[in-house]
Amino acid sequence: MDLFSLNAETAKNIGLGSMGGSVLGWLFVLKFVKSLVTKILMLAFFAGIAVLSFTQRDALSICAAKFEVRESSIQNTSCTFFGQEISLSKIQP
């Protein structure tokens, strides 16, 4: 088993966790950082993480939804999440 193998749900949860972590980082910076320049730089950093996580999670959701809707003979496909390939396969009834 590959140590870094992800499925779509795990990747979506990682995206949510990183967005939540960036919000906690914002709160930490606002509470404990005294220098205004450092505070602005740190807030911009955490905002970047939140936006990147949101866009990656959204792209993964769209890719998975397109794959689930297809009524073709394609049984496997892959999507990317932060540069990692995530394999999706249809469940046979």
What does this structure look like?
The protein is α+β, with helices and mostly antiparallel strands and 93 residues long. It has one domain. Helices cover 63% and strands 13% of the residues. It contains two helices and two strands. The chain has helices at residues 8-32, 36-69; strands at residues 76-81, 84-89. It has a two-stranded antiparallel ribbon with strand order 1-2. A hairpin with a 2-residue loop joins strand 1 and strand 2 (84-89). Helix 1 (8-32) runs antiparallel to helix 2. The model has no long low-confidence stretch (mean pLDDT 78).
Query: What general form does the structure show?
Result: rod-shaped
What integer value in Å does the Rg equal? Answer: 18 Å
What's the story with the biggest beta sheet? Answer: 2 strands, antiparallel
β-strand percent reads 5-15%
Helix percent band: 55-70%
SSE order, one letter for each helix or strand: HHEE
Q: Please tally the helical runs, counting DSSP H or I stretches of 4 or more residues.
A: 2
| Unreliable segments of 5+ consecutive residues | none
